[in-house]
Amino acid sequence: MTELAAVKAALKTQAVETPSWAYGNSGTRFKVFAQAGVPRDPFEKLDDAAKVHEFTGVAPTVALHIPWDKVEDYAALAEHAKARGVRIGAINSNTFQDDDYRLGSICHPDAAVRKKAVGHLLECVDIMDATGSRDLKLWFADGTNYPGQDDVRSRQDRLAEGLAEVYERLGEGQRMLLEYKLFEPAFYTTDVPDWGTAYAHCLKLGDKAQVVVDTGHHAPGTNIEFIVATLLREGKLGGFDFNSRFYADDDLMVGAADPFQLFRIMYEVVRGGGFTSDVAFMLDQCHNIEAKIPAIIRSVMNVQEATAKALLVDAEALAAAQASGDVLGANAVLMDAYDSDVRPLLREVRQEMGLAPDPMAAYRECGWAEKVVAERVGGQQAGWGA
Ligand code: AOS
Ligand code: ZN
Ligand code: ZN
């Protein structure tokens, strides 16, 4: 295989998971702007996600958020996905929207609340059994707002205990992905604030516990690709929640704020063998003011473009420049790949996959947007706290 053929082959195997909540209405604490034609239930979210996959060819799975996507029959939901040509991906737990969780969920000082939170996580694993999902994605809003509010060490003990109980319940081939976030909604301490804390818990739990890197969950200026390289090296990178941030957890389209950062991350993924391993490439975004399906198609394309550039890095030339201490040469090799226009290559890849070369135009022309606006009245809100 020529090198270009290998790059194309790799791009055809790419899989970006889209989140069910990105198809629903969302907003900020100030306002949720309702859009016409948004899904009214989880089945319709899957219908929309299927359109994203139909036109990009690389978005075969859809993440659910429980209870936002609560249905009577999860096996039927999985069947519905299958009939539309997609599958259900990660199950995201939600231990942040009940009144009981004012002081936390699995780190809460009251054992009764911790029991309720763990119960919800176990229910999520039951749902995984019904949908055939591999991953349970855990993000905890737990933390404190004021120094002295609760005992930081005891909260870590409670966290470890709750996670262990859920870990034990995981079946063969199932994983627990632990997501960290610097702050928000807690403003003083967060119980899983950084990759180090997530890593320490996952290490103790075992092989089925892995860390999730949400690109919007770091302090400004954090070198995320270094974290990616480190986690991959330790065999502990479970996946990504991709999105863009200008300020905090903005949940804007991935690759919109800083495409160079996305390229650097994808380069470390490729370099560390993460592209061909079990790393889950998920989007965690909200489209508050822009049209949702086109925004998700654009996001998938942004990930594809960054990946194509990362795959185009001349590894041999880079290694030679690095070994000889050629600082500028090494940097130039990386920048050459980043500066390439990979759009013609991706158009070719899509055509070889039997797809239209321009997914945005193909979606625009297919009439789906007009159809759902006419048929769906009273679309669902994505949920709070995305
Ligand atoms: C929250 O900030 C996290 O990014 C989680 O992944 C969360 O479950 C998701 O964004 C939906 O709220
Ligand atoms: Zn996230
Ligand atoms: Zn987030």
UniProtKB/TrEMBL annotation:
Q: Which PANTHER family match?
A: L-RHAMNOSE ISOMERASE
Q: Which UniProt keywords apply?
A: Isomerase, Manganese, Metal-binding
Q: What class of enzyme is it?
A: isomerase
Domain Xylose isomerase-like TIM barrel per the UniProt entry, residue ranges: 49-245
Which biological process annotations from GO are given for this protein?
A: L-lyxose metabolic process; rhamnose catabolic process
Keyword Transport assigned: no
Manganese recorded as keyword: yes
Q: What is its EC number?
A: 5.3.1.14
Q: NCBIfam families given for it? A: RhaI_grampos (TIGR02635)
UniProt-recorded name of the protein:
L-rhamnose isomerase
Q: Name one Pfam family in it.
A: AP_endonuc_2
Organism of provenance? Streptomyces rochei
A single MF term (Gene Ontology): metal ion binding
